[in-house]
């Protein structure tokens, strides 16, 4: 048991309150594999994200992190249990949701400004207004000089900035991120984390940020969910009481940060080892 | 020994870089000129050998024609017209059939490819029939079309259409299937309707596949039109070839062939221009300076 003076307070998973931004209540999801078998991706999964809260999800590869996010978008439906977003059951892809992907999901045939304007244009905003907004958001991520460039002409970090602008321009109340920075080098990742926190503090959306990097999770989050190796379920939840605003380049040397990371790592380690040994068995 | 100040050093380095660049450029220019000169030399050697061979009867000009004979034939077609009317009219008729067939076949192929590519059930159901239809030798259909549609333009257009359709369909279908899933999900979450996904994600990502097929299939459309004319027509380059063949006029056959080749090259050039214009977002290939 952790003492209450510590920054990482272990929470007991409880049934989600009605006013939560995201409420996943006792959800199990099974896939039907192409050869007709059932495969459980996540089981008895309960998770709550309050309005304006930044939640991170860590867990070994294949434990169902991406699946969890897709339940919130409505791209996947639970087999049992229910998922609510802003108090309403998820039926369709909600306009309140923004999603940043791990892989490059920009449209390569569109210039930076056309990529960023895509969301408002899809949603029927008049052209002039959409492009004015896009120019504003491109400025906020510091890419004004690159409006007319195509994605292949940008570095990986710049493309991620475009992806952030593309998502934030819709001003999502719910922001889902699936290992968005895992392909970036260390310095670029730190810069992007700062960028993200800056944008988020302006918008105060509720965030679910998936990562396999525990330090990234602790640095960013109000709350960290540790998942078990697949089929995934919540192993433990920690509240991270590090003060904001946080500076990513410095926070990793903060003794409190190190202490928290250690505590959670003790929890996560077994699962990672379990996930790896399973991966070896199944040849992943 | 004299000391060189840093600025002097930098200046001399800069001039040596400029000189080296100029040298490299000159080398590239020289090589380019060499390639063109060698190409011309081979063409001239080939034509002269052919001409000389024909003059000395090593190559029988009755069967294999000769460059001067072909040239005379083309010149007489240009100045006096062909037995079926002016040369430009034959070219026009064939081009018209080709373009009509190409346009109908390409649009049909693209639309069918996108619909089946987007709908798994339709794809599973129709794939077997498309495979069967695709395995029918297309030229044989030419006879069917001439019986059904007559000696006019319709039968040639129909043959060109079937020549083009399957190639474009196969590529459009593949292109739609290869569209990146993350990109589609991204568009969906950004707020795109199914129709918007088709127009702003599926079609652009299938575009390079479709354009590649347009390249090949224009040639097929031309073959369809010419073969159609060959099988039975009142006008066109194919009829010109078949008339020349009937009269054992090798010059005529070769002359028509060369005119067709030039037509195909001109259109190919135009399609490449169009392609570069449409997919200007693509990174430049590494061998850009190669040609
Ligand atoms: N569409 C699908 N069909 C079948 N199985 C799937 C599908 N998507 C994911 N899975 C399986 O579900 C499990 C969880 O996947 P995922 O959520 O992508 O894991 P993570 O993101 O944590 O790495 C994995 O074992 C994966 O193979
Ligand atoms: Mg994943």
Relative helix content of chain A: 25-40%
Instruction: State the CATH class of the largest domain in chain B.
Output: Mainly Alpha
Structural class of chain B: mainly alpha
Number of helices of chain A: 8
Radius of gyration of chain A: 19 Å
Structural class of chain A: alpha/beta
Largest interface pair: A-B, 27 and 22 residues
The helix content of chain B is over 70%
CATH architecture of the largest domain in chain A: 3-Layer(aba) Sandwich
- Major sheet of chain B: size, sense and barrel closure? none
- Model regions low in confidence, pLDDT < 50 over at least 5 residues of chain B: 287-291
- Would you tell me which CATH topology of the largest domain in chain A applies? Rossmann fold
What ligands can be seen in this structure? Answer: adenosine-5'-diphosphate, magnesium ion
Rounded average pLDDT of chain A:
90
Q: Which whole number gives the mean pLDDT of chain B?
A: 89
Based on the structure, what is the oligomeric state of the protein chains?
heterodimer
Element pattern of chain A in H and E: EEEEHEEEHHHEHEHEEHH
Globally, the shape of chain B reads flat
Question: Would you list the SSEs of chain B in sequence order as H and E?
Answer: HHHHHHHHHHH
| Main β sheet profile of chain A | 7 strands, mixed
Number of domains of chain A: 2
């Amino acid at each position: 048991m952790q003492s209450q003076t510590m920054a990482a307070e272990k929470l007991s998973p409880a049934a989600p309150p009605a006013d939560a931004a995201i409420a996943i209540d006792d959800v199990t999801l099974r896939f039907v594999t192409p050869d007709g078998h059932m495969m459980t991706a996540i089981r008895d999964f309960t998770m709550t994200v309050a309005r304006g809260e930044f939640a991170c999800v860590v867990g070994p590869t294949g434990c169902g992190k991406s699946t969890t996010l897709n339940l919130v978008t409505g791209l996947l439906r639970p087999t049992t249990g229910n998922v609510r977003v802003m108090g309403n059951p998820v039926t369709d892809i909600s306009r309140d949701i923004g999603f940043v992907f791990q892989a490059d999901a920009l449209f390569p045939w569109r210039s930076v400004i056309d990529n960023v304007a895509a969301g408002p244009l899809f949603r029927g905003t008049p052209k002039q207004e959409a492009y004015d907004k896009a120019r504003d958001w491109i400025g906020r991520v510091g890419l004004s000089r690159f409006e007319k460039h195509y994605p292949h002409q940008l570095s990986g970090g710049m493309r991620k900035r475009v992806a952030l602008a593309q998502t934030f321009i819709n001003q999502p109340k719910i922001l889902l991120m699936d290992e968005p920075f895992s392909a970036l080098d260390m310095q670029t990742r730190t810069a992007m984390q700062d960028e993200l926190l800056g944008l988020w503090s302006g918008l105060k959306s509720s965030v679910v940020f998936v990562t396999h990097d525990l330090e990234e999770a602790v640095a960013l989050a109000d709350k960290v969910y540790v998942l078990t190796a697949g089929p995934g379920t919540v192993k433990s939840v920690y509240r991270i009481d590090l003060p904001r605003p946080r500076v990513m380049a410095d926070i990793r040397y903060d003794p409190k940060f190190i202490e928290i990371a250690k505590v959670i790592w003790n929890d996560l380690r077994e699962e990672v080892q379990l996930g790896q040994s399973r991966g070896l068995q199944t040849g992943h | 020994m004299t000391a060189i100040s840093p600025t002097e050093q930098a200046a001399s380095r800069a001039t040596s870089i400029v000189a080296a660049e100029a040298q490299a450029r000159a080398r590239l220019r020289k090589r380019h000129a060499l390639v063109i000169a060698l190409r011309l030399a081979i063409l001239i050697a080939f034509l002269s050998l052919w001409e000389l061979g024909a003059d000395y009867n090593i190559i029988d000009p009755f069967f294999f024609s000769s460059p001067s004979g072909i040239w005379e034939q083309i010149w007489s077609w240009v100045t006096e017209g062909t037995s079926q009317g002016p040369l430009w009219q034959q070219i026009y008729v064939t081009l018209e059939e080709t373009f009509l067939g190409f346009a109908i076949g390409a649009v049909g192929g693209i639309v069918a490819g996108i619909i089946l590519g987007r709908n798994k059930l339709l794809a599973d159901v129709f794939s077997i029939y498309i495979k069967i239809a695709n395995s029918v030798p297309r030229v044989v259909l030419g006879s069917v079309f001439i019986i059904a549609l007559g000696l006019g333009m319709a039968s040639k257009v129909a043959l060109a259409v079937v020549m083009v359709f399957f190639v474009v369909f196969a590529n459009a279908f593949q292109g739609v299937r290869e569209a990146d899933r993350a990109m589609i999900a991204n568009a969906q979450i950004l707020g795109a309707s199914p129709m918007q996904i088709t127009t702003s994600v599926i079609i652009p990502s299938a575009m390079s596949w479709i354009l590649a097929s347009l390249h090949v299939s224009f040639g097929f459309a031309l073959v369809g039109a010419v073969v159609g004319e060959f099988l039975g027509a009142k006008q066109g380059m194919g009829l010109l070839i078949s008339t020349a063949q009937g009269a054992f006029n090798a010059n005529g056959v070769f002359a028509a062939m060369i005119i067709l080749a030039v037509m195909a090259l001109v259109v190919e050039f135009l399609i490449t221009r169009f392609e570069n214009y449409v997919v200007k977002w693509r990174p430049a290939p590494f061998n850009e300076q190669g040609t």
